[in-house]
Design brief:
alpha/beta, Helicase, Ruva Protein, domain 3, 3 domains, two-stranded antiparallel sheet, 14 helices, 7 strands, globular
Length: 307
């Protein structure tokens, strides 16, 4: 079975992990040296390396596998999960120094579940640590923030993002042209995990193929949207965006637009105006009855900003 590239190229050690903050690196190295960690909240955009950092840390601490429980709070988010599964695991004696519960997407936990978890953290602090990852730290209740060390994982810059994707393609022996690669990067940035998955999907017979040649059911619509914008087909790109983005994904779409200002404007002045347009769209997002109208109007304004 063909191995997933995101797993093949996932960093496993402190040296392999790409650090944006050297103070954070020093802190993690100190924990590894002491063979101990506090409760932690790792926050940041999707795909920037939060879970990877957590797994690097667990690997470097050399914990017993039986002392590690991984769970995804977007699927297991209710109060019963905390009262039963989490409490039962935390309450048993560890095989090694301590246990760790790695809870991905902890911002999906219900407030009631989070309230119960703060008690579990305190009761079993001597033999169990929690590592929570989240995209939106504001959705984590203050009581959990006060019990955890906060780490915000910054996105890598666009150039390094592109270089890492290109390195994977070269290592895998995939032929590609830079413009096609840039379409995949622009559509996914700063979500490196998504970009790597898209690149693997689009690598056919040793070549990276354009998104327009891939079935619409299997490719991220944003890749095709980028291609349409680059070709000047603004109307079709706008239709594609509005027909695919879901209401609960609107904020993510506006954040993606902000992360890719170069798509809307090449000059610093144009990008400044683009920021204002996106900011206004976010403000209007909760006020307009039909969010698709807001998105469509914003895309029109952005694509004419330097005309």
């Amino acid at each position: 079975m063909k191995k997933l590239w995101v797993e093949s190229y996932r960093p496993k050690t402190i040296k392999e992990y790409v650090w944006k903050d050297q103070d954070q690196k020093s802190q993690v190295e100190a924990w590894i040296k002491d063979k101990s960690i506090p409760h932690m909240i790792l926050s940041g955009n999707p795909g920037v390396g939060k879970t990877t950092l957590a797994k690097v840390l667990l690997n470097e601490l050399d914990l017993e596998q039986a002392d590690i429980m991984e769970m995804n709070a977007s699927r297991e988010r209710g109060i019963d999960i905390i009262k039963n599964k989490v409490t039962n695991f935390a309450g048993t004696v560890p095989f090694g120094r301590f246990k760790v519960i790695l809870m991905d997407e902890a911002d999906y936990l219900t407030p009631e579940a989070q309230a119960v978890m703060r008690g579990v953290m305190e009761t079993y602090a001597d033999n169990c640590r929690f590592i929570l990852t989240c995209n939106y730290p504001n959705k984590i209740i203050p009581a959990l923030h006060s019990r955890c060390q906060g780490f915000h994982v910054e996105k890598i810059d666009h150039t390094e993002f592109t270089a890492r994707c290109a390195t994977i393609l070269v290592t895998e022996g995939i032929e590609f042209d830079l413009d096609t690669l840039d379409n995949y990067v622009t559509a996914s940035y700063p979500d490196l995990r998504k970009c790597i998955n898209n690149l693997q999907l689009a690598s056919v017979d040793g070549k990276l193929i354009p998104a327009k040649t891939i079935s619409s059911n299997t490719v991220d619509y944003r890749i095709k949207m980028v291609e349409l914008f680059k070709n000047g087909d603004v109307l079709e790109a706008r239709k594609l965006a509005c027909s695919n983005v879901k209401p609960d994904e609107m904020e993510e779409m506006f954040r993606w637009m902000y992360d890719n200002l170069h798509l809307w404007a090449k000059t610093p002045e144009g990008q400044d105006r683009a920021i204002i347009k996106i900011r206004d769209a976010l403000v209007n997002h909760s006020l307009i009855a039909d969010p698709e109208i807001n998105l469509s109007a914003t895309l029109v304004e952005l694509t004419t900003i330097e005309e």
